[in-house]
Amino acid sequence: MKNQMKLIIPLFVLLLCFQGMLSQNTNPKYDAELAEKLGADDYGMKQYVFVILKTGTNTSEDKVLKDSCFNGHFKNMKKMVADNKLVVAGPIGKNDKTYRGIFILNVSTLEEAKVLLQTDPAINAKFLEPELYEWYGSAALSEYLEASDKVWKKGF
To answer: What is the dihedral of CA 137, 50, 99, 115, to 10 degrees?
Structure first.
């Protein structure tokens, strides 16, 4: 019996340590339903496409054309948000790289992103040129959109 106790106690301690290690890596706030809805992997992440919009090759000074293309650009962004395809967008300040803005698209491949970007009049008219990158980020990124729609006072 004494020899059995010598074996059981270390095994019990080892089991407790192993359980502690497992519980440290488990999120007590984990919401399986939300994770599934958002397409999250086990780390709460998912694949997106990050787009840098740069000044394009079209240098036309035709104000009517430019206004039409950029009005279409903003309408297209609203449509992509409504379709849950655009989760982040915004301009980039003055810089020496001709960067104009960014998109984070809720698609998992560059090919899907290219198809989406073909719906943008400013890109089609070459006023903007997209640079695309695969990006792995939080699956909850799109959840901020509901709050963001409540904080703007003036629209574009």
So the answer is: -160
